Every structure is written in structure tokens, then in C-alpha cells.
Amino acid sequence: MSGEDRFVRRLLSEIPGSPRILVGPGDDAAILDGFPGPWAISTDALVEGVDFLPEHPPEAVGRRAMAVNLSDLAAVGARPEFFLLTVGFPPERGEPFPLAVARGALSRATPAGAGLAGGDLSRSPVAFVSIVVGGRLEGRALRRSGARAGDLLFLSGFPGRAAAGLRLASRNRSRGDAPGLSDADRAELLAAYLDPEPRLDLGRALAREGWATAAIDVSDGLGIDAGRLAEASGLRAVLEADRLPIGAALASFAQRAALDARELALSGGDDYELLFAVAPELEPQIPNTGPGDVPLTRVGRLEEGRGAVLRSAEGDREIGALGYDHLGGAP
Amino acid sequence: MSGEDRFVRRLLSEIPGSPRILVGPGDDAAILDGFPGPWAISTDALVEGVDFLPEHPPEAVGRRAMAVNLSDLAAVGARPEFFLLTVGFPPERGEPFPLAVARGALSRATPAGAGLAGGDLSRSPVAFVSIVVGGRLEGRALRRSGARAGDLLFLSGFPGRAAAGLRLASRNRSRGDAPGLSDADRAELLAAYLDPEPRLDLGRALAREGWATAAIDVSDGLGIDAGRLAEASGLRAVLEADRLPIGAALASFAQRAALDARELALSGGDDYELLFAVAPELEPQIPNTGPGDVPLTRVGRLEEGRGAVLRSAEGDREIGALGYDHLGGAP
């Protein structure tokens, strides 16, 4: 039996089946049971040294990679049903590496309802994890487009915590040193980066209740992703500086690291919160906290125009480029 | 607009839409129109330096990566409908790199009926291409399991040509030097490696006509993949040495390179031919050439037992480990 066949055998012995997956890993293709109506599929890859650090345990990498992917399903309001997992890794790390990545991915996927349908293992000089998730839509899909001028912008959770966590997790501590930060704050910020919570229940509620006219998950930065939602809707996003929700842990970190908490909130990616547009007449229906007790904050509105700005007493400031550009450095 | 957004915009302007894809690239997830009944999904990743060489043009890499993936749909008898494309690449190569990969992938996907639904771009120190393909089954899926003792084994095309082509394409010419090889033979062998033809029409015919009891695409080597089909079916695969189809170009290459053509045919992967089992009473129905004029050769049979052997006048020889093990070197 080849190493790859042995790997599949070992993994399959650990995981529950899924009614939608008729033939799972181990054949040339997975066979799934279809259904009429719309469904969603998305993919995200994480690369060692770029999206995660070599010192991160592979189980945590797999868990985070799955959360990142599930967040895309959350953003369209889909219910996860299956996933495929591809792991590239240097052969000297051995089979325990992809097995740990898979276990981490399953620790997020199984509670969310997604079963392992298939994947691929490959030797690679640099480790990477590429995941595909698919899920069913119970109503109309949330899209980035669809918002109207005058719609209000809401945000879940506290942006910027993951950016602080990344600095704390980085080997290059000169970027993230925050002397005197409490253990609890440190743990909260690290968890925001290492183990983000995909807002699946919130996304499904937004789609099901018809609350949102548009939505996006904040993966690359609040500024850049607000700009994306605005552009897809043909509008301008206006975030109000004094409405940005800054959590206590981020505020404490920023003060001790001599950084600006608001800048971390605007430019930091990796939080995987949902930014969504709500027609003004529906505002009274939006609860202060969504499913899972995640706070929902009105952070601004959409206007005629283009781009994304932060509005304060000093005027408007362009923020549509604040965040992580995956092709940064490319011409 | 970020580099990734610009990339999606540019690519979308070049490609046809697909009726099954309701929302394509550019949102958080693709939205597809579902249907009742079974469908297939599969994924394969290619890594630079492992599965392709740095000197290969990115368009050829994308085209080959798509063929490799479509071959998995061929092996289960599915009709391609959509794909997702992930490209990791060093930023100094710039946007032209993933764009060329995407164009190459589309050159295979579009004629096969698969539309671009989504994907991901990532910076990476090492280039890689990860593709997911999905397709509809018009009948029962072909699987590796399902063959019965006494079933005959058929093979499409001429295995080993891609292994010869890889040697010719390799920078390390000491492995592949074949002095005096004709230009036509060289071109045929290089094409077999660089631009394999997924046997989609054959796979669909096998499923539709009910000819095959089991099937696999020969991606890692005829020996190892015959062993996989046999193991999934709980049987032993017996290939007959004097029935192996050795093409003229491979024979000429092997002679000039002082290699054994039959060994290349048994251990070489990357041909993406289909190996399939046929109940003996259906043998008269199997044509000599399948769709696209690909020759179909009876190469052996399945017996009670385990593993895969090559049978000749000298007896049986184990061949179930002949081929490429993706986890080779792993404990």
C-alpha cells in the first residue's frame, strides 16, 4: 500500500460519515448527492511563511485554514456540507504532518456539518494547506453587491484583534512586544489570530431573515473589504471613526506596543468578522448581539460614490487600500 | 483596487459564462445551481520542482494541471461542469504568472464544458497550482471497487510515453538522453507528458454503456494503479507481459536511452490513461478504439487474491509498488 493510500485509510478510520457524501476519500473522485437549488463553494490556501508561521503546530494550522474557508460560506449565508483538503509538505516531516493538519481541519468542520469528501497530498519544499468548502443555501445568497445608498453598515465582533495576535505570535517580537500585557488579553488576541471563529450562524441568520442587502467577511482588512463591498454595490462605504468597536484587549495591547488601535482595526486582516449592509428601516430588527453572543455594531453607512472612507471630525480619509493585498508586490 | 481584484476582473473579461454558475469569481463564494442526483468532485495539486519543472511555461503548467484533474472525472464517468483554480507563486513573477496558468487551464476546461467558478491567489516561495473540478454523473459512477474475479482488464492508449517525455523534458539530460530519436517521436513523447489528454469521452461511455465494473485513471504508474483497483475490488490484478501496448515512439526512445520500454510502461505515471474492468461476457462489445480514436487493449484480468502481478513465461512478478508514491520518503 502506498503512503497516500495508507494515509487515507488511517484518516477515514477517525471520521464520521456524512449522508451527502456517497463516496468519500480514496477513489478517483468523491461522489456527492445533489439537490435542486443554489449552493456555494469556495477555496482558500494558506502558505507557510506567508499565511502561517513554521512554529505553528500543524493541527492549529489545519483548524485555522478550515475556519478561514468556512468564513467564506458564512459570508454568503450557506450551511457547510463538505470539504476537500490538500496538503503540500516537505517529505521529511512525514505523514504525521498532514494527519495533524487534517485533524485540526476536522475539529472545525465536523461541528459545522462539513464532511471530508476528498483531497490531495503532495510533496512540496514549502508547506501549504488548500481547502475547498461547499454548502447549501437555504435562502437567497448574500453577496457583496446588492446594497443601496443609505443602507447602514454593521460589523460583528472586534476587528484588529487578529492583527495584534499575529504580532504577538510572530518570532520577530520587535513588531509585537507589549510589555505588561495581561495573560488574559494576550490569550484573547492570540486566539483571535490563531483560532478565529467563522460567523456561520450569523451569516445564515442574515440570509434567512433577509436582514442584509450585502455582506463580506473581513479577511484582508476592514478598510480594503469595506471598499470591496462598496465597489461591488457601486457605492461608497463610510465608516465613522468613533463607532469602530475597539475591544479592551486590543486597546491594552496597542497602548503597550505604542501602536494605534484604530489603525490595527482598519488595516488588520484575519479577523473573519462579517461586515454587512442593512436597509435603514430594518435597523430596529438588528439585535445588539448575534448568534453565539457576537456583538453587532453599526459602524457606518453606504453613500453614493466610490471607495471607502473613515469619517471623523477631521474629515474623510481614504481607507479602501488598508489591508492585505494577496498580490502585493506584483506589478 | 487590489491586485487580486484586478486579476479577477481581467480574467473574467476573457472567459465565457456557464449556465450552472450563478455567481462566479469575485465574491466570497461561488454560487452554483444544483440538481438532484449524484455528482463528482476531485482535486489535484501540482508543485514546482516536484510535479513540474521551473522551465515549463506557466500556460502549459495550467493546461496540464487541468488535464490531470479532468482525468479524475473521466475515471468516474462524470461530465465536467465547473472548476476552481488556486495559484501560489513568488510575487516577483508578477500577475502574468497566474494569468498564464489560468489561460492554460481554461484551454482544457472550456472545451470540456467546465466553467471557472472561483479560486485563490497566494504569495508562495514555491509555485504551485491546485485545481478542483466538479461534474455531473449521467449514470452510475465508475469506482475502483466493483470488479469481480474473472473480469478482464482493458487499458486505453500507450502507457510509459509520459515517463519518457518527462526524461526528455528534464534538465538533467543524463536521465533522458536518447541519441538519434526522431523529431516526431520526441514530440509525441513530450506531448504525452506535457499535454496529456483526459479520457473524458471514454469514461462517460464506459459509465453510460455499463461496460466497466471498475475503473481508475493511471496517474502514478500502471503497476501501482492496477494494484489500487485490485485492492479496492478485493482481488488480484494480473497483467500479461506480452499484451502491454508499447507504442513505437516509446520503443524507439527506450532502445536509444538504454532503458526497458516495458518497465517505463509499468512504472511511469502521468499518462492519464484509463484502466478498467469488463465482465467477460461483455468483451465482444468493447471496441478496439474508443472515443477520440484511442486504442483500447485487453491487458489482463482480475483473479481471486491480492496485489498486482505481471505474468510472463518466467512466472508472476509483483508490480503493485511500481510507480510514484506521493508520500515516498515519509515513514
Radius of gyration based on Cα positions of chain A: 20 Å
Strand order of the largest sheet of chain A: 8-10-7-11-9-12-13
Task: Please trace the helix and strand order of chain A, writing H or E for each element.
Answer: HEEEHEHEEEHHHEHEHHEEEE
What structural class should be given to the helix and strand makeup of chain A? alpha+beta
Tell me, briefly, the overall form of chain A: globular
Strand tally of chain A: 13
Topology of helices and strands:
The structure is a homodimer of 331-residue chains.
Chain A lengths: L2 H10 L8 E3 L6 E5 L2 E11 L10 H19 L1 E12 L6 H17 L2 E9 L4 E10 L14 E5 L4 H9 L13 H12 L5 H10 L2 E7 L3 H12 L2 E5 L7 H10 L3 H7 L5 E6 L17 E8 L4 E5 L2 E4 L13
Parallel strand pairs in A: 4-5, 9-12
Antiparallel strand pairs in A: 1-2, 3-6, 4-6, 7-10, 7-11, 8-10, 9-11, 12-13
Report on this model:
The structure is a homodimer of 331-residue chains. Chain A is α+β, with helices and mostly antiparallel strands. Helix content of chain A is 32%, strand content 27%. In chain A, a hairpin with a 2-residue loop joins strand 12 and strand 13. The first copy, chain A, is globular, with a radius of gyration of 20 Å. Chain A starts with a helix and ends in a 13-residue tail after the last strand. Strand 3 of chain A pairs antiparallel with strand 2 of chain B, so a sheet runs across the interface.
Task: Describe what is shown at a glance.
Chain A is an alpha+beta fold and 331 residues long. Chain A has helices at residues 3-12, 58-76, 96-112, 161-169, 183-194, 200-209, 222-233, 248-257, 261-267; strands spanning 21-23, 30-34, 37-47, 78-89, 115-123, 128-137, 152-156, 212-218, 236-240, 273-278, 296-303, 308-312, 315-318. In chain A, the strands form 3 sheets. Chain A has a 7-stranded mixed β-sheet.
